[in-house]
Amino acid sequence: MLEPVSVGLKFGFLIVLYLFLLWVAWSALRDLRRGRGGVVQADQLRASDATGMYDAAAGLADPQEGFEPRLLVERAGGHEAGIAYDLMNGATLGRGDVEIRLDDPFASSRHARISREGHVVVIEDLGSTNGTYLNEQPLTGPQPLHSGDRIRIGDCEFSYLQ
Question: Using 50, 70 and 90 to split pLDDT, how confident is the model at 49?
Fold first, then answer.
């Protein structure tokens, strides 16, 4: 009498196990279809906009003028508001061993990098968990910075000055 109950419990356990595995696979496929950046509607794309915000040639510094890119702290734990960091040699931002250290639990150890490419300064997310935001839009790839751009990493906010 005990043997049929034991066999029934084993089959019941296997059914529950397979249903759980199907649910995990379905959830993973749904997340992969959704993608990381979401769906971009055709009316959001502008052919004349090279970076999605500015024309490619807009805001380039004249080589004759002084080119002093700086990152101004608006709000950041461990930093005094109004302090400006020199970006002539670029900088990496994050919680780890980086040039600009952020005391923010939402920042990764190597969160974002700002680098110079001639007279263009570019920001890119380094695969952080919570993302980097440029003018309240999530970064999906390297983007050029223009004077007045706002950068947000977790609860830290910066302004780019040129």
Answer: very low
